[in-house]
Amino acid sequence: MNIGILTSGGDAPGLNAVIRGAVRKGIREHGFIFTGIRDGWRGLLEDDMYPLNEVDVRGLSGRGGTILGTSRTHPYSDGGPEQMKKVMAERGLDAIIAIGGEGTLSGAARLANDEGMPVVGVPKTIDNDLDNTDYTFGFDTAAAIATESIDRIRTTADSHHRCMVIEVMGRNVGWIALHAGMAAGAHAVLLPEFPVSYDQITAWVTSAWDRGRAPIVVVAEGFVPAGLDEAVSDKGLDKHGRVRLGGIGEHLAPIIDERTGIETRSVVLGHLQRGGEPTAYDRVLATRLGMASIDIIAQQKWGWMAALSGTSITHVEMSDAVDRLNTVPQERWEEIQILLG
Questions:
Q1: Are 114 and 49 in a shared domain?
Q2: Which of 91, 231, 302, 304 has its CA 20 to 30 A from that of 185?
Q3: Looking at the predicted structure, is the pLDDT value of residue 233 above 80?
Q4: 90-104 average pLDDT score
Q5: 341 lies in a domain?
Q6: Which of 39, 56, 78, 127 is flagged as catalytic?
Q7: 274 annotated as ligand-binding
Q8: Where, by residue number, does Mg(2+) bind (predicted)?
Q9: What is the pLDDT of residue 236?
Q10: 125 known ligand binder
Q11: 11 is annotated as an active-site residue
Q12: Chain segment 151-167, per-residue pLDDT in tens
C-alpha cells in the first residue's frame, strides 16, 4: 500500500514523532510505501507531495514542528473530495493519515464517512480539547513550557513587587491554564469553562499580596469574566472568519491595578507554547499513536483514529471524538480552588 501522510491545522510538538512512528512501523512490519503531503489538505488538493522513506524520518522524535508543513486549508475547498480522489488515483495513494485537531479530524471523518475516502486520523492539539482520547500529544509540552515561563516571570514579579497576569492558549478549554497554573503555584487561575467575577479575581490577588507574595494570575485566552457576553479580543478575524483571540491579559491587568493599587503587568506567551522540542511524554505518546495509525490502516477501518485510554492506545471513530469538546470538568475546577488566593 502507498500511504499519504499530512499534518494540518496548528502545529504542535510531537508531529514529527507521529510521522516517524508511522513510517517505520509501516515499512518494517507491512512493507508499505509512504508519500509526504505538504501543508495539510492543500498538498492533497494541489498534488504537492514527495516520497517519504526511513532515511527521511531519522532523528525526528525530538524535533518540534512538522517536516511536512501545515496549513488551515479546508478539505472541501478548491475542488474538494473529487479533486483529492483524482490526485490520489494519479499518485496511486491507497490511504491517508490525517494528523490534526478538531477541525482536521472533523473534515477527515466527513471524507471517510460521507465521501468513502480511505482516511484515518491521529489526534493533535496543545489545547487537549478533543473528546474520546484522554490526552493529545502536544499538550504536555505546552503545559511544561507555560509552567517554566511562569516560573521565570515569578522572579521578576518578586523583584519588583508586582502582580503579573500571564495569558496562555486555550480558546474553548482551559487545560493548559489549569495544569500550568497548578504546577507553578499561581494565585488565580481563569478558565473558559468557568466565568469568574472581577471581585473574585481581586480577592485572590489581594489575599496573596497580604501574605507578602507577588500575585501570579494565569488566564486562558478564551476566559470570559462574569458579566461579559463574549471573550475579549482585539485582533479582529482571521481569513476564515474566526475571531482571533488574545487580549484578556491586557484587559485584566489595568483592572487589577486600579482595584488593588498593586502595579500589574501582563505577558502573553502565545506561540511560544507550540514551539521547540516535545517532552519525553509527548514523544512517546506521539510515536505510539503514529504506529497505531498503521494498525488502523491494515484493518481498513476508514474513519477511525488512534486514541489514548488510560495508558493504552485504542481505536475510536473520529466522528465520536469531534462531536463535543473535552472541557475541564467541575471537579477539577473545585479541586484547584483551595490553592488559589
A1: yes
A2: 231
A3: no
A4: 96
A5: no
A6: 127
A7: yes
A8: 102
A9: 67
A10: yes
A11: no
A12: 999 999 999 999 999 99
